[in-house]
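Would you kindly consider the sequence and fold I have copied below?
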Amino acid sequence: MFLRLLSDVRWRAANPKWRSPTCCRRSTSSTAEPHPVSLPARAQVVICGGGIMGTSVAYHLSKMGWKDIVLLEQGRLAAGTTRFCAGIVSTARHVSIELKMADYSNKLYQQLEQETGVNTGYTKTGSISLAQTQDRLISLKRIASSLNVMGIPCEIITPKQVAQLHPLINIHDLVGAMYVPEDALVSSANVSLALATAASRNGVQIHERTSVSHVSVQKGRVTGVETDRGQIQCQYFVNCAGQWAYELGHSGEEPVNIPLHACEHFYLLTHPLKEPLASNLPTIVDPDGRIYIRNWQGGILSGGFEKNPKPLFTEGRNQLEIQNLQEDWDHFEPLLSALLRRMPDLEALQIMQLVNCPESFTPDMRCIMGESPTVRGYFVLAGMNSAGISYGGGAGKYLAEWMVNGYPSENVWPLDLKRFGTLQSSRTFLRHRVMEVMPLMCDLKVPRWDFQTGRQLRTSPLYDRLDAQGARWMEKHGFERVKYFVPPGKDLLDLDQSKTFYKPDWFDIVGSEVKCCKEAVCVIDMSSFTKFEISSTGDQALETLQYLFSNDLDVPVGHVVHTGMLNEKGGYENDCSIARLSKRSFFMISPTDQQVHCWAWLKNRLPDDSNLTMEDVTWKYTALNLIGPRAVDVLSELSYAPMTPEHFPSLFCKVSDLPRLKGLNGGSGGCVVVGL
């Protein structure tokens, strides 16, 4: 049977004139339909994109009382990636906020048909995630513990239990599995149409065949949009354009970087089996085989995430609505082989279609939401990494809360657009990164693994010296940072490949470095940390920072205050240290990945005063952290000035000359010394 099926596949690949029946393609016209209703001249909110994300945002905004909303779709509702989505609603997620979004989505879709009268195809099937190795089983147990904490039914089951739940599954190579009985299947396009129906009933205006060409910005805030049917003035703009979100972000007067890139995503559809599969048969996720399998009209829908993905549309937008892209049976064959190994008893499998549709992926495998750091009122919800239907309801809810209340009800920092900088928005970087990201969708998520693409984008002046000393590197916000130093004689290859949930090979190396920090002295390169200088001609800097930060910053010159940057609700936006360099000048140090977030948050809250300035000086300073009980001894040897606790107490800073540091990368030896 396996050879017969592969022969069938090769015949189809060798005959380009053959075209499979279209199962999920609606008839389209090459010309736009007439527009019976004209666009409004103004609205409070304009949403671009009529897929699952755009309709979910419109639905939740209208539920929260905002009615003056216009949703624009360049083609027809749900005609993009949403139309080709596999329709699997899965709550098994590694990141807590993604788990919560998926759980909310599942509950929303369950009652959506009753609310709207639109058939969403919701079927509670449950899902089974398979484990072929002990490490994979540990990973599933970790997810299961998170699900149980959230109150989502879940259990680790044996291979025999897998066979009982899904008799067609080959269990000979399994060590266990995770069963989530509440997971479901839906018709993704119908869910989107149901959300649009409810939003329309609540007053949202929806216009198809309307393309957004330009977002107008004045004084750093959204003022309107230009479309092919005229202009709409608005206070808020929401970019839910899916794979086109990147190009749309760059169409405005003030570019908004949205780092995502499309890849081809394949799944197979078959005719019903001789004994059609039951509609409530659990969905199978086989991460070690890189495939997923679900029932589809009595047959099989099976796709996956191959090791050699095919990015597309690197040069930009090239089609109005997404059509089924060119079939590539040779490319799909490894996934097909994995399917047949997992379900070897499929005796009369007749292929209906190989679907090839674009999916958007982000640099860190997490979706993108939130307000632009450069344009007020410009919100983004895109880059779902092939999980749009699972996240759609929850993501729309959190973004709507963000817009209406100023903050979502959950901590969404792992998904915030401001976690990315400009460097992560290069099309070359994104093309290479998504080729790494897509295979990682199925790889083990062991602690402290690092991306291999897009490296050395930002390095310290000491990078070459540290690298020569055996430094092993990690990446943070595009910045290379040392993880540990490999002692002479250690096998570097083994250390780099040490990916496990158990004690890693580098554990003792890090332990010895920690011991040195506690008992002797060490120097740590912390140049990647965010550094701002805030100054004024009068007391504006002090007065503003006193309002924005929790601790008292009216301290004598030379003192350092560790404090929190608080929002209007008293919650933490950032943890930082602020040194008072002079009466009217302050030096702020924050974590590396807070650079864009901190800058945007402060810039939006600093008064519009030409006498108050803020400068990002991260690149101006090499930051070395001298730590340990002998740190003062080392510092004293480098300076002519006394560095004893009496002369240089804790939480104190001063500009000092360190003659022994002269010549370091051309430096003069002058520096700001901060005692923490």
